[in-house]
Amino acid sequence: MARGGITRDKCNAMIGGVCAGLARHFGWSITGTRVVYVLISILSAAFPGILVYLILWLLIPESD
């Protein structure tokens, strides 16, 4: 796996570290990323948040 890619952040993980890893990779606030993800999941019928999270959890490797 190439260095510098998106990885799950196990140090700041609440569930699987997906939102924390995305926030770290893009330089966003971890809390803000979680809040936006949950809001989009709740408010959008076209975004199946739990399913997307589970897929990302399986596909994104864990950080060292």
What can you see in these coordinates?
There is one protein chain. This protein is an all-alpha fold and 64 residues long. 53% of the residues lie in helices and 0% in strands. The chain is built from 3 helices and no strands. The protein has helices at 18-26, 30-43, 49-59. α1 (18-26) packs across α2. The radius of gyration is 12 Å and the shape is globular. The model has no long low-confidence stretch (mean pLDDT 91).
- Mean pLDDT across all residues, rounded? 91
Q: Name the overall outline.
A: globular
Taking the sheet with the most strands, its summary is: none
Element string (H = helix, E = strand): HHH
Note the total helix count.
3
CA-CA gap between termini: 12 Å
**Cα-atom radius of gyration:** 12 Å
Derived structural class: mainly alpha
Helix content: 40-55%
Poorly predicted segments: none
The proportion of strand residues reads: under 5%
Number of strands: 0
